[in-house]
Amino acid sequence: MTAFAAAARFSRGETFTVALRIAAGDLAGAICRMALKRAPGDSNPELAVLETTYLDHVDTGDLTSPPGWSGTLAAEVSETLPAGHFVMDARVEKLGVVIQTDPVAVEITERVTGGA
What domains appear along the chain, each with residue ranges and CATH number? Predict the structure, then answer.
């Protein structure tokens, strides 16, 4: 099983969604966890854990796209995060086998408009 993700950018107070594509492997029964931290190797707790949902096709408009997960950070959660540069990775586990993705860059920008 091989997993990968792409860099992302979003504004504080915005719902953030990212796709994790699985290049190969049987995903039946696998569990995915995605988290956001300040830097690779940072010993501080995660800033946020994304809610993950399994997808038969990560690009819902393309039925030939690979399976994977979407990771979502609710607007209420992203509002509490500071603006800056961070990293995110994912951990996929099945039957005791763990695949850890490489960290990807995430930029959180300060929004210009206020909340409702």
Answer: 2-109 (2.60.40.10)
